[in-house]
Predict the 3D structure of the following.
Amino acid sequence: QVQLVESGGGLVQAGGSLRLSCAASGSAIKINIVDWYRQAPGKQREWVAGITRDGDTNYADSVKGRFTIPRDNAKNTMYLQMNSLKPEDTAAYYCNAEVLIDWDGATWYGWGQGTQVTVSS
């Protein structure tokens, strides 16, 4: 089995930065694809950013230019670098990943438990 664990959330002032991690353990060989989502209280979960198997990154318009997924990710850990944070970025952040679990190509797909990001004004 695979476990996905997010970390790096916390309380930060507006304009500050945080770096979220999404780490795969257990049977994980490497993370192929990851998408980051967030959910604020009373709102639907929304897609924030993602990186494809080829390393291409995409971002929601609301975070473009402020959030990045570094390309120098470790095999089993992906990151979301969040700069110039705004109060409206406050939410629980989740990673959703496809993880390689076998060298024959078998994959596991699932979610982490989330990490809270709170941005004060």
Remarks:
- The chain is about 0% helix and 55% strand.
- The chain has a mean pLDDT of 95.
- Residues 23 and 77 are 4 Å apart (CA to CA).
